[in-house]
Fold this protein.
Amino acid sequence: MTTNVKSMRWHIGIFGRTNVGKSTFINWLTNQSISIVSEHPGTTTDPVEKTIELLPLGSVVLYDTAGYNDETVLGNKRLEKTSQILDRIDVAMVLVNGSQYGKPEEDWILQLQKKQIPFLVVFNQIDRYKPDQELLKEIEEKHYSSIQLSSISSDDFIRNALKEKLMHLLPDRDWIEKPLLEGLVRPGELIVLVIPIDKSAPKGRIILPQQQVIREVIDLGGLSLTITPDQIPMLDVYLSRKPSLLITDSQAFETVFRLTAKDLPLTSFSILFARQRGGFDLLLQGARQIRRLKENDKVLIMEACSHHPTTDDIGRVKLPRWLNQFLQRKVQTDIVAGHTIPPNLEEYQLVIHCGSCMLNRREVINRISRIHEKGIPVTNYGLAIAEMNGHLERAIEPLQRSMVTV
Ligand SMILES: Nc1nc2c(ncn2[C@@H]2O[C@H](COP(=O)(O)OP(=O)(O)OP(=O)(O)O)[C@@H](O)[C@H]2O)c(=O)[nH]1
Ligand code: SF4
Ligand SMILES: [Mg+2]
């Protein structure tokens, strides 16, 4: 599987006080001019995100951030933005100048530890400020991984040593490259993919989750056949053997359930993503809660990125309509888009999350856990749509049979 997919890259956060040299460090590490550098504290305000190839780590997303000690008027807002990055990153680097290591660093490290994010303490600017021996001993006794460097040196040896240390801190690569079709496809099997080409389909291409599935079928030695929902009856005409699995876009569930034999194993792209990204059991429990919603209960629809809404938009139009049809009573729906989790979650009796195709595993798991910790059932588009079509159990059966832990 290629790492050209954003969700399959390591996400690395760079933190530290203002003026510690975070932006200089990112430019040094990448040998590129990514962030603006200046001698004035508070130069970086919003997080700067940059995707680059950083061998041997592969493709990574680096985040330069505002200083966590920023005490200006906008400091709190900047800190909030910096803190949001913690939900996305797989590893952190905490920059320190010389012996300027104190409560701000310890507080930040505590947050990283709470979120189980591995981290590296980087003593920067050692050409100007040397960390004292006592501090180095303290860091060692705490078993923190650390390195000393100067972001103005051109020493490749130290750059490579730093990348080595990051490699040791990161989980196994399988963690982000978990296959979508694990346990579901054997060599020679035929997999049918159902992709509606309607108004909401992008012109001239198929979307990322579908591309990923096709690529995995090829990697697993299977055969893939891509059709539109109205072509399903033609399968009987052309095929002498039943396909091993049918994977559909969730929006075509109703047609697919109607037109296929009950013993044809099927699931959806978004259910596969839900299994791959984590939190599957919680999302499944959430789907089973939909039928318990009462008149006027509130449902929050969460989309992880904003897009231009279409006339029959799934989050804004179709889901609210399907919910009311399924429940035969009126529930209220609100929609939010973007990385931020709204602070008023407690107002809702259910959250329905999008397929999260643009998020990495860590962010998906963090988002689901944050909602679940508030005692609010959470599900996703694919599982919710299968439930509202009355076929949830059929749509998850191939995954349960594959016995792959989720
Ligand atoms: N001598 C020396 N100067 C450095 C080093 N790293 C950064 N600097 C200088 O320190 C100053 C601050 O660097 P920045 O990279 O802008 O610091 P920052 O942490 O991004 O600062 P904010 O964005 O304001 O939080 C600049 O003048 C840099 O040239 C280093 O390793 N050695
Ligand atoms: S499924 Fe979610 S993350 Fe993917 S494009 Fe839609 S809104 Fe964005
Ligand atoms: Mg900066």
About this structure: The chain has 14 helices and 14 strands.
